[in-house]
Amino acid sequence: MCSKGKYWKSLLGVLLLYIFFLAACGKEEPEYGYLPSFVSVPDTIFQTMPRYVIAEEGIYTIADTARNAAVSLYSFETGEKQKIFNCSIQGQAVGLGTGGGEKRRLTALFMVYDKDENGNEIYSERSSLLQCYTLEGQLCWEHEIEEESGPEGAYNLFVAQNGRVYVEMRNYLYVFSSEGQLLEQLEYPDGEGYSLGTNDVFACDDTGETYLIRASKGGAVAEDSQYKLYSWDMEKGTLEEQGVVDRKCPVQTMGGKGLFFRDSDRVYQFDPSSGEMTPLFSLTENMISAHKVRNVMRTENGWKVLCADNYSGLGTRLATLEWGVLGETESLYIGAINTTAYNEEAILFNQRHPEYLVRIRDFSNDDPKDLGLTQLQLSLVNKDAPDLVQIWNRETFLNYGRKGWLESLTPYVEKSENIDMDDFIPHVRDTMTVEGELYCLPSTFNVSTLVAPVSAVGDRSNWTIEEFLDFMEEYPNALFSSNTRKEDVSARKVGVLTAALHRGLEGFVDSEHGKVDLNNERFRGLLTRINGLRIDESEGAVSGDAERRIEEGQVLLSEKSLSCLDAICQWERIYGEPVTLIGYPTAERESGGGRLMVSQPLGIVSKSRHKDAAWCYLEESFLKSSAEIEEGFPARQEGLEKLIAQEQKPGNGNGNYSAGFDENGNRGNSYLSRRHTDMIWNAINTAVADDPVLQSIMHIIREETSFYFSGTKSLDEVIEVIESRAELYFNENK
Questions:
Q1: How far, in Å, CA of 722 to CA of 715, rounded?
Q2: 605 falls in which pLDDT band (50, 70, 90)?
Q3: SS3 label, residue 594
Q4: How far apart are CA 395 and CA 320, in angstroms?
Q5: What confidence score (pLDDT) does residue 617 get?
Q6: I need a surface site. Which of 162, 305, 421, 658 has the fewest CB within 10 A?
Q7: 8 Å CB contact between 586 and 462
Q8: Distance, C-alpha 631 to centroid of its chain
Q9: Where is average pLDDT lowest: 16-30, 175-189, 193-207, 598-612?
Q10: Mean pLDDT comparison of 353-367, 431-445, 617-631, highest-scoring range
Q11: What is the pLDDT of residue 147?
Q12: In the predicted model, what is the mean pLDDT of residues 517-545?
């Protein structure tokens, strides 16, 4: 009996374990992550270009032009700015810092001017004064810095966790104790790269050790940068190099604790003792533009990140990242190459819809031939596919649509109470359609076109390839675009050919049937005439060249992007006369016009599990007002019509229209003229999107004709190779 009892107990235990196992398998584990929220800091906080420092409670500011300077606090909790106290010195504030652990204080650096007998400040005679206050405004100590420090130029002030104060001025570095005693003064050795840099960052590691982080190799992006770390050797009185950080930029911490760095995607913490770089959180997923990051601070349950467009503080925003369960909101992921294109829109959408959380996945890479498109395409068929995908170009769009990777939006539009198919600018809608199904809901677009002075080409809005070549032979150095660099005449001839074939290639290539015919008199004549152009290599496009050349009486044919209503007026200001949007030449004049460029729209991924939420995002993006569009024309017909009608009313213009010419040749309207309106609508209605097949053939033509224009191959050789490569392309892409 005893053995049977044990048997049944064992069996019951196994069954219970099995039941618990099944229950556990059927229950999904919650997904955790950072939940971002954003608060805009009023521009008034920074209107007087103040010195500022970030603390957990808010932003302390002190105006750098004030006398009897006031310290104020902008509270993160209340969203209000309040003056705390007036400083006891009359001087110009050039630095502000806070720190010192539990005994935290505010330290300010002032420039103090001597005065003449009339009480006027003598700007050539000045000294520097360091003052330390409690947070309530009580002066703790002050220290005058010797005149020889040279108070001109850049300044850097940092208060460490232990209360020590580091002051960097020109070629000097000072270290003060928490009680104001000067511990050391270091003059940076000449020729060793120590002199004050505008991007120097001070920070403390977790042990309280203070480091100076300084650029040793600059770059436009973090991935091109290198920074060296220095620590202060009190015994030797020198800066000692402690390590090198490649491909990342330092980020100033709020409160000073932690050596933080960032690249274009993430923020990291660096441990100088081990050389390890620990990733902390993603900027991309949390819709924070890396180049806007100014300060970071660790909180009890996440992070605070201060973001600004520039150091003046204009457009400042505080991002708070709180760790939590993502399942409490419906997460939407945007897969993108250019991740910053959607940050502002996604932030606003999240604020309007707390039930959703839009996040961004970065698929970009450094490969100029791929940019990350391969990984982005692979993600569309994976289990964890993003919900929305960025359409990088028309080739990828057609590829996604034909392979079924995108959800057709036609049923959504048909059910929508806010959008109808007739709401679209017709050519924009057609560009986003594959085999009769709408796959994208673009919000903006622009038109790339050629602009010419009326005096040189008349007021026509189209021309043939031959008419374009007639113009170029009369003005061989006229074409002014990114393809007209000075140094390489053959490259500039390729640029002329490119302009001729942007819309004209369809006269030689049948992309639908995969046929190419270049060995004919017309195409040979095109190349021959371009090769014979008398191009002056000193008249290429460089910065500031356009206005100079126009002032000298030269004729310019400019490649421009028509993306705002006052663009034509601005071009006419430069030309000093009426211009025409003549468009790109074509095989037949009637088919001429510009190139339609849709601004990286989003499509819903067919594998998305949140399609209704994704549609909500797209619908709001399409319906946003013209005031919310930063660049480009609204893709909604009604939106563009209203915008134009508003700008046509006298008194509603923005002042830029006064630079343009009206239909009577008069200059000075403060509103959008009928002539310009007609030019804009004509450019939009005649523009077409690039054919991906023709673009691929164009790439082949550009590569091969460069050998002809440089004299290394004959015309016959080049045409033979182009046709051979084109035939191979068509065979591989049947």
A1: 11
A2: very high
A3: coil
A4: 38
A5: 95
A6: 421
A7: yes
A8: 13
A9: 16-30
A10: 431-445
A11: 53
A12: 86
**Residue 581's Cα: distance from chain center in Å?**
29
Backbone angles phi, psi at 260, to 5 degrees: -105, 140
Q: Do the Cβ atoms of 215 and 227 come closer than 8 Å?
A: yes
Q: What's the confidence (pLDDT) of residue 433? A: 94
Alpha-carbon distance of 533 to 332, in angstroms, equals 54
pTM of the model: 0.78
Helices (H) and strands (E) in the chain, counts: 17, 38
Q: Which residues contact 530 (CB under 8 A, 6 or more apart)?
A: 469, 472, 493, 496, 497, 500, 709
Q: 615-649, pLDDT tens digit by residue? A: 999 999 999 887 778 789 999 999 999 999 999 98
Q: Which of 583, 575, 465, 578 lies closest to 526 in space, CA to CA?
A: 465
- 437 Cβ contact list (under 8 Å, min separation 6): 401, 408, 409, 410
What are the tokens at 652?
Answer: 């509603």
For residue 301, what are the contacts with CB-CB under 8 A and spacing of at least 6? 322, 323, 324
CB 493 within 8 A of CB 536: no
* Averaged confidence pLDDT in the chain: 85
- Supply the DSSP string of 337-366, one letter for each residue: SSGGGGHHHHHHHHHH-TTEEEEEEE---S
Among 608, 152, 526, 589, smallest CA distance to 358 is for 608
d(CA 413, CA 408): 10
H helix runs in 533-592, sequence order: 545-551, 567-575
Write the CB contacts of 371 (distance below 8 Å, at least 6 apart in sequence). Answer: 337, 364, 365, 392
Q: How far apart are CA 294 and CA 250, in angstroms?
A: 10
Contact 593, 311 (CB under 8 A): no
State how far the Cα of 507 lies from the Cα of 511, in Å rounded to an integer: 10
Task: Give the pLDDT band (50/70/90) at residue 256.
Answer: low
Closest C-alpha among 73, 54, 50 to residue 62: 50
Q: What CA–CA distance (Å, rounded) separates 121 from 91?
A: 10
Residues making up the chain, counted from first to last: 734
* Position 553 pLDDT exceeds 50: yes
pLDDT of residue 680: 96
Q: What percent of the chain has pLDDT over 70?
A: 87
What local confidence, expressed as pLDDT, does residue 189 receive?
A: 57
Bridge partners (DSSP) listed for residue 560: 449
Token pair 């810092």: residue: 97
pLDDT tens for 93-123 read 888 999 887 788 999 998 887 777 776 766 6
Question: Is residue 343 a contact partner of residue 355, using CB atoms and an 8 Å limit?
Answer: no
- Round to the nearest angstrom and report the end-to-end CA distance of the chain: 79
How many other CB atoms are found less than 10 A from the CB of residue 711? 9
Residues 75-90, buried b or exposed e (16+ Cβ, 10 A)?
Answer: ebeeeebeeebebebe
Structure tokens at 290: 């890396």
131 vs 139: CA distance, rounded Å: 7
Is the alpha carbon torsion for 408, 412, 415, 417 positive or negative?
negative
Determine the 3-state secondary structure of 334 from DSSP: strand
659-668 long-range contacts, Cβ below 8 Å, gap at least 24?
659/569, 659/570, 659/572, 659/573, 660/566, 660/568, 660/569, 660/572, 660/573, 661/572, 661/577, 661/578, 665/578
Taking Cα atoms as reference points, which of 487, 583, 482, 478 lies closest to residue 533? 478
Kindly state the tokens that stand for 122. Answer: 């003598």
Q: In the β-sheet with 81-86, what is the strand arrangement from edge to edge?
A: 51-54, 58-62, 70-75, 81-86
